[in-house]
Amino acid sequence: MGAAPPAPAGLRFIRAPNASPLTLDGTRTYIVGRRRPAILDPGPELVPHLAALAAAVADAGSATILVTHDHPDHAPGATWLAARLGASVLAASAGTLGPGDVVETDAGRLVAVATPGHAADHLAFHWPAADAVFCGDLMLGGQDTALVAPPEGDLTEYLASLERLRALRPALIYPSHGEPFTDADAAIARYLRHREERQAQILSALAPGAATADLVMGRVYGAGLDPRLRAAAAGATLAYLQHLERVGRVRCLEGGRWTLA
Fold it and tell me: Residues of CATH 1.10.10 domain(s) within the chain?
């Protein structure tokens, strides 16, 4: 396996110290540009991390803060950093950013792309000058899946968002957690294939008859499931069931039991 290609000119990242089973190595805050930078996902309100971000753009004429979605490992630091820098915060949850909006940097423009599924307000940012996309939590570096769980997660929307990302045909995808994807098309194909395989497992788990979501989860994820990921697995199972109900493959019965349609 060859070495990863160098980062495009004008790109830096600083990683927040908030590693966990769900955030992997921590939140990667990307900085695009130097004279007029955009700062993507300041992360949690961890002052040493935010101070490092402020120092990294200290020589800039102005900066803009962008938020992919309003989750605690992505957004809370924006308020502190904006006050420190005198910068604007653009986020869908605040009504200050929407699909198609363009943010100019000295390293090229960033275009907001609607990518709901992980969260309803989720945006990715297309960087045409570098043939790259910042995907937030739509994909996780080194993984073939990302968390999609109700009530904010929606698998039907998530699958559509992956297709929307693929239509951009980027060469590089930069996730907020983990290493970048250097073969974007192959990575998206793996993500879609994983979802197809998991759907087949969900349907197989229901084949013996009606079952609760919890029983389906046990059959699919098995006894070896990391206890720290149990809540995420339960949410993901429900997301699959709701999606499969929407496309007519399963039905929800009284008492919260599910069966094949």
Answer: 206-260
Q: Which fold has domain 206-260?
A: Arc Repressor Mutant, subunit A (1.10.10)
Q: Which CATH topology does 11-182 take?
A: Metallo-beta-lactamase; Chain A (3.60.15)
pTM, 2 dp:
0.94
Domain with CATH 3.60.15.10 in the chain: 11-182
> Is-contact 44 76, C-beta < 8 A?
yes
**Quick one: which H or E segment has residue 196?**
helix 184-206
Interatomic CA distance for residues 259 and 261, integer angstroms: 6
Closest CA to 38 of 108, 143, 130: 108
Distance, in Å, from the CA atom of 56 to the CA atom of 243, rounded to the nearest integer, reads: 43
Q: Residue 130 has which token pair?
A: 């570098």
> In this structure, how many other beta carbons lie within 10 angstroms of the beta carbon of residue 79?
14
> Rounded to whole angstroms, how far apart are CA atoms 241 and 261?
11
pLDDT in tens, 90-118: 999 999 999 999 999 999 999 999 999 99
Three-state DSSP class for residue 29:
strand
